[in-house]
Amino acid sequence: MDLVTEVLRVSGMKGSVGARMEAGTHWHAELANYRGIAAHAVLSGGAWLVMGDGRHVRLAAGDVVLVPPGAPHGLTDVPDGGPSMREATVCPPRDGRTVFLGSGPARTRLFTIYYDCNHLTRTQVLDELPDPFHFQGGESGAAYLDDIVRLLGRELARPQLATGAVIESLVDLILIQLVRGWLSGRTAQPRGTWLGWVDDPVVREAVERIHADPAADWTTTTLAASMHVSRATLARRFQTAMSRSPASYLTQWRMDLAAVDLRDTRDPVEAVAARVGYRSVPSFTRAFVRDRGMTPGAFRLAPRRLAPDAG
C-alpha cells in the first residue's frame, strides 16, 4: 500500500495557484495570514525568501520552497533593502493573476501555490516537513520536478484548452515530487512523527496492515502475530518510530476516517461505526467524543469552519 498517497487522499490535500509574479528591481512581496502551506517556485532569475524571524534563503531558477501555514515571510530581490524597500512592498493577489513588481524589465519570474487540506484529519504528511523546506533545482531525489515547474509556468503564461485541468494535475505532481525529494534526501530519521515508519520495515508493515483493514479487530498482540513478530518487539519499535502505541495510532486513523465519512456522506452513524471497526454505536460514540470532543451527530451538524478546532 502507498501510505503517503492514502493519507494525502483522506486528508483532502489540494493545491491552487495563488499568484504569478514578474519582478524587476527593488521589489518585496509580503505574504502572511494565509491558511495553507505556501510553495514558491522560481521560473527564472532569483529571489530571497525572508522569514519573519529574520532567516534568509537564497532562491535560484528551478528552486521550490515550502513555508508552513500562516508563517510570516516575504520574497524580495534584496534581503536588507531598508526603508526604500518597505515602500515597494506589495501583497500579491491569490487568484492566479499575474502581478508586476518593482521597476524596470522583469528579471525574475515565479509563482506561488497554496496547499491546504480539509482539517478533519489529524494524520498529515506535510506537518513533518522542515520549516522552511528548500528544494534546489536539479537536486537528486525528486526527478522531473524542474520539468513540471517549467510546464506549469508555460500553462500559466499561455492558457490553452483545458488549462485548468492541466494546472490542477501539475500542482498535485509538484507536491508529490517535493515529498519524494525530502524523504530521499533527509539526513535524519523522522522518528516521533507519522513518517517514522519509513526507516523501520516492521513498523511500516504494521501501519500498512492498519490502513488496509482499519475495521479489523486489531490489538498489538493480533497485529504482531499477523506479522510473525513478538508483541514486545512491535510495541517497542512502534513507540520508537511513531512516539505512540499501535493501539493509539489505530484509534487516530479510525477517527480520521470516521470524521471524513460523517462530514462527506449521509450514511447512518451505524454504518460509519462499522466501517472503522466498532460493533456498537455507543462504543463508537464514546471513542469519538474522547477524540473530537463532541458526538458523531453533533460533529456532522457542526459548521465546517468548526471542524479544525473540534476536540
TrEMBL record:
Residues 204-302 form the HTH araC/xylS-type domain. One of its GO terms (molecular function) is DNA-binding transcription factor activity. PROSITE patterns: HTH_ARAC_FAMILY_1, HTH_ARAC_FAMILY_2. Coiled coil: none annotated. Keywords: DNA-binding, Transcription, Transcription regulation. Pfam families: Cupin_6, HTH_18. It comes from the Bacteria. The keyword Transcription applies. This is AraC-like DNA-binding protein. The lineage of its organism: Bacteria, Bacillati, Actinomycetota, Actinomycetes, Micromonosporales.
